[in-house]
């Protein structure tokens, strides 16, 4: 009787035994890095519309990249990488605002509201009034308007990013625009 031959244990280098092990599932590091490089400015702009300080915006965008990078195997469709980055930027901006609000509650010292005189000019004044009006909106209205008009996303993309229905996006958007009109037309 011939001796039984032991079963062959597949090696990681052996793509013939398990072809699915040769192709890693999820977004590749190169694709994620290229998406980040290509859309860094737009992601920074998105964070800037939700937050009010440049350093925090840069931190949020970099943290979003790190988080999506570490979870890249869960991003099965590489076409959705940008959507994951945007959603992570929005979520991290929310968290930063929550921490800031908590810090303000704990500290009695308020943060300055006005920009320095060196940053002046007519365009800056208009931008400041828009930002002030945006801050007066409800959180959801502000998020919908920022994503829809400043990040140039469709209503369906906004709904997916925020995890709300398309009807809610439309309702928050129309109410937000109406509130902005009132705020911008009001005398200073």
UniProtKB/TrEMBL annotation:
UniProt keyword annotations, A-Z: DNA-binding, Sigma factor, Transcription, Transcription regulation
Entries under CDD domains matching the protein: Sigma70_r4
Biased composition regions of type Basic and acidic residues, renumbered to the chain: 8-20
Record Gene3D superfamilies: 1.10.1740.10, Winged helix-like DNA-binding domain superfamily/Winged helix DNA-binding domain
Residues of the RNA polymerase sigma-70 region domain: 36-100
Residues in the signal sequence: none
InterPro entries, A to Z: RNA_pol_sigma-70-like, RNA_pol_sigma-70_dom, RNA_pol_sigma-E_actinobac, RNA_pol_sigma70_r2, RNA_pol_sigma70_r4_t2, RNA_pol_sigma_r2, RNA_pol_sigma_r3/r4-like, WH-like_DNA-bd_sf
RNA polymerase sigma factor 70 region 4 type domain boundaries: 128-180
Database matches in Pfam families: Sigma70_r2 (PF04542), Sigma70_r4_2 (PF08281)
Region (Disordered) residue spans: 1-22
SUPFAM superfamilies: Sigma2 domain of RNA polymerase sigma factors, Sigma3 and sigma4 domains of RNA polymerase sigma factors
Entry similarity comment: Belongs to the sigma-70 factor family. ECF subfamily.
Protein name: SigE family RNA polymerase sigma factor
Species for this entry: Streptomyces glaucus
High-level lineage: Bacteria, Bacillati, Actinomycetota, Actinomycetes, Kitasatosporales
